[in-house]
Amino acid sequence: MHARTLLPAVLAAALLTLTACGSGDGSASADDAGTSPSKASSPAQSPASSHDSGSGSQGVKVPEALNFSATTVDGKPFDAKTLAGKPTVLWFWAPWCPTCKGQAAATAKVAADQQGKANVVGVAGLDKSAAMRAFVSDTGTSSFPHLSDEKGEVWKRFEITQQSSYVILDQTGKTVYEGVLPGGKGLADKVAALTG
């Protein structure tokens, strides 16, 4: 019985590994013609999917894209509704991914430079929390929150199929960029364009 539940997870991890760590240039955005129909209607893509699901930290409506909760790599509860009202960078990474390690410094710099104007949140997957905590410590990225997404729930919500991906949401929760940015190059400019 245990093998039946473990096999799909192993196959999914193998698939992600084969397509992972920077396959593609990451230049695709949510508005590109190559966007699949299912992506176009996902909660993170549709500006019409903003619901009054409660109020974010600034009393603004929470878009459906941010209507989820998780646990940080440190075991603390995290409510994404608190991100509402500001541009948000979701950085999907895995502890063993060299491309992700290469993005760490640029991502941490954006988090520091945009503190108070934009949110940066790491979403770790494809490993256990201990490895995730070690990655955060080793890369010096502890200045912003990282979610422990061992079950892949947040990854599935945003339809992420490979690590080292970014999803950038504007202040309304609409996805304005999705893809890989090797070394984090271009992340600062994309976020600065949203914060002015």
UniProtKB/TrEMBL annotation:
<dbReference type="InterPro" id="IPR013766">
    <property type="entry name" value="Thioredoxin_domain"/>
</dbReference>
<dbReference type="InterPro" id="IPR036249">
    <property type="entry name" value="Thioredoxin-like_sf"/>
</dbReference>
<feature type="compositionally biased region" description="Low complexity">
    <location>
        <begin position="26"/>
        <end position="59"/>
    </location>
</feature>
<dbReference type="GO" id="GO:0016491">
    <property type="term" value="F:oxidoreductase activity"/>
</dbReference>
<feature type="domain" description="Thioredoxin">
    <location>
        <begin position="59"/>
        <end position="196"/>
    </location>
</feature>
<dbReference type="InterPro" id="IPR050553">
    <property type="entry name" value="Thioredoxin_ResA/DsbE_sf"/>
</dbReference>
<keyword id="KW-0732">Signal</keyword>
<protein>
    <submittedName>
        <fullName>Redoxin domain-containing protein</fullName>
    </submittedName>
</protein>
<feature type="signal peptide">
    <location>
        <begin position="1"/>
        <end position="22"/>
    </location>
</feature>
<dbReference type="GO" id="GO:0016209">
    <property type="term" value="F:antioxidant activity"/>
</dbReference>
<feature type="region of interest" description="Disordered">
    <location>
        <begin position="26"/>
        <end position="61"/>
    </location>
</feature>
<dbReference type="InterPro" id="IPR017937">
    <property type="entry name" value="Thioredoxin_CS"/>
</dbReference>
<dbReference type="InterPro" id="IPR000866">
    <property type="entry name" value="AhpC/TSA"/>
</dbReference>
<dbReference type="Pfam" id="PF00578">
    <property type="entry name" value="AhpC-TSA"/>
</dbReference>
